Every structure is written in structure tokens, then in C-alpha cells.
């Protein structure tokens, strides 16, 4: 079993949570130390790896010459200048509440192959900074017969998520707003909303609005360390073995209380990484047939008053 490390070509420091694509719709992620496992026995039909990470130039690596270390070159930043907000400056804080639902059948089943992004308009013409993102999650009861009881014991999970922020590029997610790796671990003990404090990243809202995305990295151990998760279930059929993406917990509740189609989906291991609007005609989904058009993320923001 070969453990491979992804590092910065100049500093040789590990690059956390890099994406390793196999070019056939499959792939995996490096952990917080930039490590991943790849062997010819596990991936006999793969001859090329496509490596990508926030803030770095993409790299293609042939598996025939694969060493123990892969070095990535830092990409020249095209991010806008960070707007520094003086401490003590007056502001008001507003919250757009998340949309909650504990019905299993009203939920998106997260898979490692998918990234899901939600659009938000700029809520105020003044200088506005994102402080907290509220991610709704649905908890499942251990006992199916008690699933409608609020006090029922919940199925345990410990799942690592990656979060990204994007500019609005003519209605779809565009350039990232920060190259920082933003991750969080959710468990069944945290309730039906995960409140992610992002105030330290100084993300001000562009005038055209922004997208925030969520992507499952996999299950973790008790300390939050990413485990070598099985990304696919192999089902044998008359036409051979078919790989079905593994569904991870928690589930993500969708809502019909937002009339516009603000949710977008993409498959991260497929070349091009094209975003698709979550809408009838674009995607086949039982959620859309029920009118559940959007993942109901909420967020809290600070509106700064003119001095």
C-alpha cells in the first residue's frame, strides 16, 4: 500500500484536502496532512492522476512514475484586495435563517463526487461581511418507528465537510473569494444546524452576490482525522460490475419555500467541473418532482455603517 504526500513545491509543506481525480468520474481526497493512498491493486485501470487544490496550479501525474511525493506550484493570486475593517467600527447584524426539515425523503444524499452551491444576493448596498454560515442537516433516528420523535436517539456519524465561497459569474459560481481551506466536522450531537463561524476570513459580500458551497470529504475518527472512506459501492450485474457512489451522513434538507432556483451541483471528479442549476430539465431528481428546489442554507452578516 503506497502512501503519497502532496506538498507545496517551494516550502514543501503539506497541502491539505487536495483533490485527486482519476479522469473517469472517480477520485478521492488527501487528508489534513496532504496524504492519500494509491495502489495499482486498488486502481488497476487508472494510468493518470489529476491533482488540484485551492491556490495551486493543477497537475497531471502518470501512475507509472508515481513517487512518494507530488509537488504543486502556487498559483498567482487573482483575488481582490482584502478589505480591512477597523476594530470598533459600528455595524448591525442580520440573519437569514436556514430552512430545516427532518423528513428523510425531503433530503439530498451527499456523495463525495458532488459539490453543492447556493446563491445569495447582496443583502445591503453598504459594506457587508459574512460572519456565520448556517448549514441545515437532518438527523436520522436509530429506531425507524420513532423517527418522528424529537427526543429519539439519533444514528451516530462524524463527517468532514469542505466549504468554499465563490463570486457570482453571470449566475453561476465563479472565482473563489478565499484560498483558505475551510473545513468542519459535523456529528449527530450538534443538532439540526451546523453554525460555521467564518468571520476570521474577512469575506466581504460582492455587489453581485456570492455562492457558498458544501462538499463531503468523508467520515472521520473520533479526533476528526479523515478516514480512508470507500467512495463507491460495487454492485455486480449481468453487464458487469457497476460502481455506485456511497451516500454519507448527515442528509441535507431541501426546501420548497424558495421560489427561485438558487442551488447548483457539479461532479468534482469529472473534467471541466461544470456547474448545473438544480432545476427540472437539467437534473433528474425526486426532490425536484416534489418542488424541493433548494438546499436551505442560512447566513449571518454584519452591515457596517459609514463613519
Task: Describe the structure in your own words.
The longest helix has 4 residues, at 286-289. Strands 10, 12, 13, 14, 16, 20 and 21 form a seven-stranded antiparallel sheet that branches. The model has no long low-confidence stretch (mean pLDDT 89). The protein has two domains: 3-72, Immunoglobulin-like; 91-304. It has one helix spanning 286-289; strands spanning 3-8, 19-21, 27-29, 35-37, 48-52, 59-62, 69-72, 91-96, 107-108, 114-120, 128-136, 158-169, 172-176, 182-187, 193-197, 210-219, 232-237, 240-245, 252-255, 263-267, 276-277, 294-295, 298-304. The termini are far apart. With 307 residues, it is mostly beta strands. A hairpin with a 2-residue loop joins strand 12 (158-169) and strand 13 (172-176). Helix content is 1%, strand content 40%. This is CarboxypepD_reg-like domain-containing protein.
Offer a quick outline of the entry.
By secondary structure, the protein is mostly beta strands.
Keywords:
Immunoglobulin-like; 2 domains; 307 residues; mainly beta; 23 strands; globular; CarboxypepD_reg-like domain-containing protein; single chain
Amino acid at each position: 500500500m503506497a502512501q503519497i504526500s502532496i506538498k507545496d513545491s517551494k516550502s514543501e509543506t503539506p497541502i491539505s484536502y487536495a483533490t485527486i481525480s482519476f479522469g473517469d468520474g472517480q477520485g478521492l481526497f488527501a487528508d489534513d496532512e496532504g496524504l492519500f493512498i494509491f495502489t495499482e491493486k486498488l486502481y488497476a485501470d487508472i494510468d493518470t492522476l489529476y491533482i488540484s487544490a485551492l491556490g495551486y496550479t493543477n497537475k497531471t501525474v502518470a501512475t507509472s512514475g508515481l513517487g512518494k511525493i507530488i509537488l504543486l506550484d502556487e498559483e498567482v493570486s487573482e483575488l481582490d484586495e482584502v478589505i480591512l475593517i477597523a476594530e470598533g467600527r459600528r455595524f448591525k447584524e442580520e440573519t437569514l435563517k436556514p430552512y430545516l426539515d427532518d423528513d428523510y425523503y425531503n433530503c439530498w444524499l451527499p456523495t463525495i463526487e458532488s459539490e453543492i452551491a447556493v446563491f445569495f444576493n447582496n443583502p445591503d448596498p453598504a459594506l457587508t461581511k459574512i460572519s456565520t454560515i448556517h448549514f441545515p442537516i437532518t438527523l436520522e433516528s436509530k429506531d425507524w418507528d420513532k423517527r418522528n420523535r424529537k427526543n429519539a436517539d439519533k444514528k451516530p456519524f462524524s463527517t468532514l465537510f469542505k466549504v468554499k465561497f465563490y463570486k457570482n459569474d453571470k449566475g453561476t459560481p465563479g472565482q473563489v473569494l478565499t484560498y483558505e481551506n475551510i473545513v468542519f466536522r459535523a456529528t449527530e450531537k450538534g443538532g439540526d444546524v451546523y453554525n460555521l463561524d467564518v468571520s476570521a476570513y474577512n469575506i466581504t459580500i460582492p455587489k453581485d452576490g456570492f455562492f457558498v458551497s458544501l462538499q463531503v470529504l468523508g467520515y472521520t475518527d473520533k479526533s476528526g482525522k479523515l478516514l480512508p472512506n470507500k467512495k463507491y459501492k460495487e454492485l455486480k450485474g449481468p453487464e458487469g460490475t457497476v460502481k455506485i457512489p456511497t451516500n454519507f451522513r448527515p442528509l441535507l434538507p431541501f426546501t420548497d419555500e424558495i421560489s427561485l432556483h438558487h442551488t447548483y451541483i457539479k461532479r468534482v471528479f469529472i473534467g471541466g467541473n461544470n456547474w448545473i442549476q438544480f432545476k427540472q430539465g437539467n437534473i433528474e431528481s425526486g426532490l425536484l418532482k416534489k418542488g424541493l428546489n433548494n438546499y436551505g442554507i442560512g447566513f449571518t452578516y454584519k452591515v457596517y455603517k459609514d463613519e
